[in-house]
TrEMBL record:
Species of origin: Candidatus Gallibacteroides avistercoris
Phylogenetic lineage: Bacteria, Pseudomonadati, Bacteroidota, Bacteroidia, Bacteroidales
Keywords assigned by UniProt, alphabetized: Signal
Span of the signal peptide: 1-18
Record-linked InterPro entries: DUF4270
Protein's recorded name: DUF4270 domain-containing protein
Domain of life: Bacteria
Amino acid sequence: MKLLRFFAFAVCLSWAFACTDDFSEIGTSILPEGDQLYLSRDTFDVTSTTIPVDKVYCFTISEWLGGFTDPNFGSIKCDFMAQLYPASEMEFGGENNIGDKLDSTVLRMRFATFMGDSLTPMQLSVYALNKQLPEIPYTDINPEDYYDPSDLLGRKFYTASDISVEDSIKTEDTYARTITLTMPQEFTDMIYQKFKEDPDLFKSKEKFNQFFPGIYVKNSYGNGVVIDIRETSIRFYYKILQGDTLVVKQYKDYLAVTPEVVNANHIEVTNPPYMSAPSADTTYVKTPAAFNTEITFPTQEIIDKLKEDGLNNVTLNTLRFVVPVYTPEANNFSIAPPQYLLFIRSKDVPAFFAKRNMCDNINTFYAAYNATKQEYDFGNLNKFITNIINLNPDTTVVDEKISLIPISFNYITESYQTVSTNLYPALGKLKKNLKASIITVKK
């Protein structure tokens, strides 16, 4: 009999989950008299508003470079400053190094994705930094405070398309476009001389970055494409002698931008005039560093509803919150709604990103954008409410300010990832008049 009762209960729950558009009270008796459970559904209004964002914490594994303008999105311009992480073991052939020197050093920036016209001519300029970067950089960081224009390491024109590379190579899984810039011989000689004088300095990222604070890669010309750089390194070229006569050319990537050092993306975004006008039916989420949506979540209303029947007599089975999205406008830059939205108390936002926290599915949740349904479905948020009640059943919670923030997942290794604010250009127009719905089980 107990098995049959459980089966009937499960079937009824499945029916309740499927009927997500019917918000009337269910009140269905699903067990024999004297051993009854009732399902009930209630809905609550969720108000929302657009919140301008002037800066975001920019911990990320990407460096963004370039710029473009779109009438619906606005404009964006990106460049970056970064420290360099020295390899733990460096060597240049020792006594077999021919000429006791490095032949050259080359800055290499590898990227797989971009937004815009791949044939747009762009120019980058690279400078040496003369000041330490902050440990927690934001996107409004001012590069003028960290470099001198006279410390130019080089300039180069480039396009996002490798015209010189055969199409068959471009389709390989391991292929990534690479922008290269040969560094001045003065820089090459400086690095080699310092290595000979103090090789231990290169075994500590702190000591090395005191010696050389990093590089600034500036978008110095062009508008029409933004590239997402995933690997930035400096390659060292030298020659060694094997035996009496064999000359062997060597190269090693001994300096790189990694998650262990500071990577500061400097991003400037402008918004089209229509986004500044009040809207009765739309809020915006736009990245990078432009708009979040803030909602007033009916936390206290939901708790009060549960208390009506007594917290010991009712179980919050489901709390569902879905955010519909308007159909994205056609554009030339493949701008779409952000891939993920974070659900988090507004007051907790700064600490969440500064500490590089992950979603715990208790206080923070995320939803993926469903392009078919055009919505963000946060799934079951019942732990958000039950955690508050469990911590203090008698607490009074004002309706909470919750931020919906575009985020990215950064895969540092196969088993380790972090959450960061999304820096990929994206725009989502969210519908207002939102609802949160609950399903409760009453004894």
